[in-house]
Write a structure and sequence with these properties.
Distance between the termini: 31 Å
CATH superfamily: P-loop containing nucleotide triphosphate hydrolases
Number of strands: 7
Structural class: alpha/beta
Largest sheet: 5 strands, parallel
Bound molecules: 3'-phosphate-adenosine-5'-phosphate sulfate, adenosine-5'-diphosphate
Shape: globular
Helix content: 25-40%
Number of domains: 1
């Protein structure tokens, strides 16, 4: 575990300042990163919102949602591999900063590339920040039927280039901490399963 340090710490191409929290703040709560990944419509936004609702009474929580991030932090980035990698690098950077300060961070971006996700995991581990990958698995057939935003219809008609799962790759996690079968389990069941893993790992306490 990397201890809190004053001043700048080299993290490859990133140089960041980390300031040690004082007094009780240092032990008050432990931040962590819950990293949702999966195809469009697999349930990343839905589950991150529902899990955060349940965590809020006991934690400071922040959701970094792909759509929202792309309107602000990653405005101007597209969906080529380098752009997606850059998007995930930025989300990972913010997630780690927040988690360092005791925040429960829920990231909900497609994050299709294993290397990018593993890089966030590695950097989090270097700082002793718990990182849990939540793979939202659902068959393409169900996602096309769901078509929450009408994007699959357009992608199948060739109107959206580089659409994940249709004309762009998605590399599933090999050993995610949590596997959600979002095409066959209810949202409530998925929420309960995520909370159970967090409790098992001592990252949250059971709701009273
Ligand atoms: N080409 C293409 N492929 C996939 N998704 C697309 C694309 N174009 C737009 N969208 C919309 O952008 C959302 C995904 O953005 P992310 O930042 O999560 O993607 S990534 O992690 O950088 O791959 C995604 O949101 P979700 O549906 O919530 O996953 C889509 O609404
Ligand atoms: N177990 C589940 N977890 C999350 N979403 C689910 C689940 N079962 C069904 N859904 C539905 O799937 C859809 C997922 O949409 P959304 O959360 O916007 O996906 P994403 O953020 O991955 O694009 C919602 O309509 C949600 O109600």
């Amino acid at each position: 575990m990397i201890p809190w340090t004053l001043g700048f710490r080299d993290e490859g191409h990133e140089r960041e300042a980390a300031v040690k929290p004082s007094g009780d703040d240092a032990v008050r709560s432990k931040g962590f990163i819950l990293w949702f990944t999966g195809l469009s419509g697999a349930g990343k936004s839905t589950l991150s919102v529902e899990v955060s609702r349940r965590l809020m009474p006991r934690h400071s929580v922040d959701i970094l949602d792909g759509d929202e991030i792309r309107n602000f932090l990653s405005r101007g980035l597209g969906f080529t591999r380098p752009d997606r990698e850059e998007n995930i690098r930025r989300i990972g950077f913010v997630a780690r900063r927040l988690a360092r300060h005791g925040i429960a961070v829920l990231s909900a971006a497609i994050s299709p590339y294993r290397d990018s996700r593993d890089e966030v995991r590695r950097l989090a581990a270097e700082e002793g920040i718990p990182f849990l990958e939540v793979y939202m698995q659902a068959s393409l057939e169900v996602l096309i039927r769901r078509d929450v935003k009408g994007l699959y219809k357009k992608a199948l008609a060739g109107e959206i280039p580089h659409f994940t799962g249709i004309s762009d790759p998605y590399e599933p996690p090999e050993s995610p901490e949590i596997l959600i079968l979002s095409d066959s389990e209810s949202v409530e069941m998925s929420v309960a399963r995520v909370l159970a893993v967090l409790e098992e790992r001592g990252l949250t306490s059971p709701a009273r």
